[in-house]
Amino acid sequence: MTTQELAARYQELMTQRKFIEIQDTLYHEDVVCQEPEKAAQMGMPVLTHGREAVKAKGIARRSGIETLHSYACSEPIVAGEFFSVTLKQEVTFKGQPPMVLEEIGVFHVKEGQVVKEQFFY
């Protein structure tokens, strides 16, 4: 799968919120996820290594959501082995007021699989 094909599939599945399918089918087993330093203040690790650990982190994060009001994933921008998308969601976390979350995800693709994802927010 080319980077362009993988990016298009990522966007398709992300729009459908099929996070586990994305990770199971598009991510390398040794994928690395890098969050910004401020993620630690929210109880999330800054670096996560391995597909299963990345999946577990996402499941834990989504379990804190009381209500998902809206969710959007942009069309990907592709350059060489990389693609990026913007993600925007309006959510209510348990015990908190509604908020809008916006982030940019940058993905490194090698041999048809995501080997690193990095988020900026």
TrEMBL record:
Determine the domain of life of the protein's source.
Answer: Bacteria
Q: Which residues are in the SnoaL-like domain?
A: 1-121
Read off the InterPro entries from this record: NTF2-like_dom_sf, SnoaL_5
Q: Which protein are we looking at?
A: SnoaL-like domain-containing protein
